[in-house]
Amino acid sequence: MKSIIIKLLFIVSVILISVSCQDTLEPKIYSFYTENNFPKTNDDVNFVLSSFYANFSSEWGPQDPNILATAKTNAEKKAAVMWSVYSCTNGWYHLSSSCTDEMTDKWNPIFGAFSYNDGLGSFVNGNNGPVLWNGLYQRVTVVAKATAFIQQFDDQINAIKSKGALTSKDSADVKLRLRAKAELKCMRAWTMFLLYDWFGAVDVRLDPNNLMDTELAIRPAANPTSEYTKKYLRNMVSDLKVAIQDMYTPTEALSGANYGRLHKDVARMLLMKHYMNYASQTNTSSYWDSAKVYCDQIISSGKYSLASEYSDVFSKLTNTDPGTNEIIWATTYGPTRQSWHFHTNLPKGCNNICGIDVDTASLWDGFQIPWSFYYKYPAGDTRLKTIGSEFYKVNPKTGKNELIKLGTAAALQTSLPTGAYAVKWLISFDRSSTGQYGFAAFRYADVLLSAAEIENNLNGPTQIAKNYLKQVTDRSGTSAAVDFMNDETGNQVTGAVTALATGDKQVFSDFLLDERGRELYWEGWRRMDLIRFKNAAGESKFIEYAKTQNKAADSKYLYFPLPFKAMTEGKGIYQNNPGY
Question: Which CATH class is domain 441-543?
Answer without folding.
Answer: mainly alpha
